[in-house]
Give the backbone structure.
Amino acid sequence: MSHGRITGWATNLPDRVLTNDELAQMVDTSDEWITARTGIKTRHIDGKVTEMSAAAALDAMKMAGVSPDQIDLLLLATISPDQQIPASASVIQDSLGLSCGAFDLNAACSGFVYGLVTAMQFIQGGMERILVIGSDSLSSITNWEDRGTCILFGDGAGAVIVENSADKPSLLGWDLMSSGDAADLLYCEHGDNIVMDGQAVFRKAVLAMEAAAINAMDKAGVTSDQIKLVVPHQANVRIIESALKRLDIPIEKAALVLNYTGNTSAASIPLALVDALNAERVDSGDLILLVGFGAGMTSAAAVVRWDPPTI
Ligand code: COA
C-alpha cells in the first residue's frame, strides 16, 4: 500500500500590511474592539492568488528537493482565483514549469484539508508527488465599508509537497462535510463582495469544528488528549477557544497566526501549520489535528501522524 507524507512546506504573504488602526480610519471600529472580539491585529492585503501560490510552491518544492518534472498533480484550494476561467491552478502550473494535471478546489476555508485528504487518496492510487496549495486573496472580494466583515479578512498562501515515501500511513483519520442548507450565512455573488451573518456563522463554526474533529479522531482511533498540535482554521480566536474547550484540548496546543494574518480562508490552515512546523512544535510520531470550517457551510478535519522528511 502507498502512503503519502508531507516532505516540503512554505508560505507567502503579500507585502502590504493593513493595521487595525488603519481600518479604524475607514470604518467605525477600533483596534481595541477588533483585538478583543477577534484576536486579529494586522493582516496582509493586495495579494494575487497565482503569484502568492507560485512563490510558496517554489519554496516548498526546493525544501522537498523536488523538480518541476517530478510533480504529478497540482491541487489549488481557493475561493478567490484571479479569474473565473481559466483555473488559477493552470496559471500556477505554467509559471512553475510543471507538466501535470492541475485544478482548483472550492471548499472555502476547509479547502486545504479537503485538498490534503484528496492528495493522500491520489498517492494511494499510484501518484508519487502532489503539490497542494491553499491560497486566497480575500481583500479582492471584501466590502471595505462593512465593518462586520472587513476587519476579519486577509491574503496569503501556503503550499505542501505530499510524497509517496512513507512506510506507514500518516493520514490516520479524516472527515469532510458540507451543510448546504446554511449557504446563505456566508456567500459572494459573481463580481460582488463577501456577505456574512457573523453571529450565526460563529455559532455554527464552533459546532462544526467540534463534530469534524471528533469524527476524524474516531476514525483514527485516537482521543483528544493524544493530540500534540491542533491547527485550526484562523477565523476568530474566540471560535478556536470555544471549539477547543468543547474538545477538551488546551488552547496552548493550538497553532495560532491570525493575529498577523487575519482570516485568509484556504491559506489559513497551511499558514498556521507551516508556522508550527518551522517552530519545531512536533516530533516524529506526534499527532496533528487539522480542523476547518467555512462557507458552504463546509467543515473538514484530519488526524496526521507526523513523519518528518529525511534531509
Ligand atoms: N467594530 C466595532 N463594533 C462592531 C464591529 C466592529 N468592527 N462590528 C460589529 N460591531 C458592533 C455591533 O454593531 C454590535 O453593536 P450593538 O451591540 O450596539 O448592536 C456589537 O459590536 C456586537 O456585535 P456582534 O455581531 O454581536 O459582535 P460579535 O462579538 O459577534 O463579533 C464578528 C462579530 C463578526 C467578529 C463575529 O461574529 C465573528 O467572528 N463571526 C464569525 C465570522 C467568521 O468566522 N467568518 C468566516 C467563516 S470562515
Notes: Residues 29, 33, 37-38, 109, 147-148, 151, 186, 196, 198-199, 201-202, 205, 235-236, 239, 263, 294 surround coenzyme A (CB under 6 Å). Residues 198-220 form the longest helix (23 residues).
